[in-house]
Amino acid sequence: MLQLCNFINGELQPPAAGRYLPLLNPATGQVFGQVPNSDAADVDRAVQAATAAFPAWRALPAEERGRRLVRLAELIDQNLETLAQAESQDNGKPLSLARTLDIPRAASNFAFFGTAAQHFATETHLQEGVALNYTVRHPVGVVACISPWNLPLYLFTWKIAPALAAGCCVVAKPSEVTPYTAFLLSELSREAGLLAGVLNIVHGTGPGAGQALVEHPGIRAISFTGGTATGAHIARTAAPQFKKLSLELGGKNPNLIFADCDLDAAVQTSIRSSFANQGQICLCGSRIFVERSVYEPFKAAFLAQVQALTVGDPLEASTQQGAIVSEAHLNKILSYIDLAHQEGGRLLAGGQRVQVPGRCAEGYFLQPTVFEGLAPDCRVNQEEIFGPVVTLTPFDHEEEALTWANSTDYGLSATVWTRDLARAHRVAHQLQAGVVWVNTWLHRDLRTPFGGMKNSGLGREGGLEALRFFTEAQNVCVKL
Ligand code: NAD
Questions:
Q1: How many angstroms separate the CA atoms of 58 and 287, rounded?
Q2: Does CATH place domain 253-446 in 3.40.50.150?
Q3: Is the dihedral of CA 191, 195, 198, 200 positive or negative?
Q4: pTM of the full predicted structure?
Q5: CA 259 / ligand 1 centre spacing (Å)
Q6: What is the C-alpha to C-alpha distance for residues 262 and 282, in angstroms, rounded to an integer?
Q7: Which of 82, 236, 318, 386 fits a 20 to 30 Å CA distance from 67?
Q8: What's the confidence (pLDDT) of residue 468?
């Protein structure tokens, strides 16, 4: 039985109180290990280690820190297969997806920020003949990085990499649902030459280790990705201590299909944007609005491809849809499918659990599911389901599509399909979404600002935005 450890001060350590949580493979329903259920004492040890390591780490030239992060990226690449297997086992995602998306992106995060820190410059403001102002950016200190279960190593490293590059020391907590690859990262970070205490990884639940981390007075900034309700709770907890906050939260993203688009491309990409990672990506477009004149052709082509998706054992090369992350989450998604029926939706595809034979007989599999006939303001179209469930809705004109697209409390991402250049820009600028894709989806450039409007979050990650977040600006004014 696999037993994970915390990583504190450069050493793998058991939790102080000796308590553990089971680790479950959602594809088989079987327990395969245990993860520390850490508490405030473990968090305190980690914060102390990070605080002690901070002066030496911040004093290293950015180039030297970057060298170690680039080395860590190389080690992730070298261990791609082990990490991908672990990610799939822990999360239920197809192994092919972990190999091509999750793990390569984790390596890119370190490679990108390892070099980005060397390009990070600050401003000067010259008052001719009077004074010279220049801005210094100091690392904020010890920071907390808290991540969810859907893209475990990908999102965990997306926070840790810029924090370390900026000269901060980190106490990180991965999701208790999918902690395996974060544990494997512990060893790799040591091999990459990170000084003891620079990166600490504490495992445990949100209310346990997570809450203790957010409350700890030694933490100066919190970078959090997860649900909107959790984000609100963290903001309430952190505000009285004036901690810097970066919150990447939930989404209910619209996908707008205009009649003049390349329909084949729109259908093909909408399959991915609806169901990739079993629909458990915060950027998935779960509300598909289609201009009425192409509604029927879009629907027919889309449904044909939905029916052809293979749900099965994540380890099979042919599998396109793996397991839902947990039984609790599967039940939540099923409750939304029930609700869709109650709200008058017509089921066009899926809607049922899938029994995968063999070793996955006890796993949590669900058919990709499509509804139509639901009002844009009904709960199914307003609340985040975070699973393989999408709705189709015809629209008659641009204004109507925009009103419906912007009608939720969320504002993370949106996708627009059109060949009309003017419309593409016009619509993009009116969408209340932090990220807009035109004729593509999940196309990422790590230099761009990433984050949501409205209840989808606070602040932006990515590129220089992330380096600014993990640093504190100081103006120095010199009289000339
Ligand atoms: P969650 O909010 O339940 O948990 C996220 C993390 O927060 C976990 O590590 C959890 O242990 C921790 N946590 C929970 N309560 C805490 C507390 N009181 N204090 C500190 N930490 C606490 O989210 P989840 O179910 O793991 O992930 C799914 C959610 O994440 C969805 O809403 C999804 O949209 C969102 N998400 C957003 C983005 C984005 O970039 N905006 C990316 C991925 C996922």
A1: 45
A2: no
A3: positive
A4: 0.98
A5: 37
A6: 25
A7: 82
A8: 98
Q: Is the CB–ligand 1 distance for residue 208 below 6 Å? A: no
Cβ 96 under 6 angstroms from ligand 1? no
DSSP 313-342: -TTSTT-SB---S-HHHHHHHHHHHHHHHH
What DSSP assignment string belongs to 6-39? EEETTEEE--TT--EEEEEETTTTEEEEEEE---
Distance CA 339, CA 379 (A): 8
Q: Please state, rounded to an integer, the average pLDDT across all residues of the chain.
A: 98
280 falls in which pLDDT band (50, 70, 90)? Answer: very high
Only one residue has tokens 């997806």, namely 97
Express each pLDDT in 444-478 by its tens digit.
999 999 999 999 999 999 999 999 999 999 999 99
Measure the CA–CA gap between 135 and 120, rounded to whole angstroms: 12
Of 58, 108, 64, 150, the closest CA to residue 470 belongs to 58
pLDDT digits (tens, 9 = 90+) for 355-392: 999 999 999 999 999 999 999 999 999 999 999 999 99
Choosing among 3.30.1060.10, 3.40.605.10, 3.20.20.120, 3.40.50.1970, the CATH entry for 2-249+456-479 is 3.40.605.10
pLDDT-derived band at 223, boundaries 50, 70, 90: very high
pLDDT (tens digit per residue) in 236-248? 999 999 999 999 9
DSSP code, position 345 = P
Three-state helix/strand/coil letters over 71-85: HHHHHHHHCHHHHHH
Q: Do domains 2-249+456-479 and 253-446 have the same CATH topology?
A: no
Neighbours of 121 (CB within 10 A): 9
Return the best residue to mutate from 230, 253, 444 for the ligand 1 pocket (most ligand atoms within 8 A of CB). 230
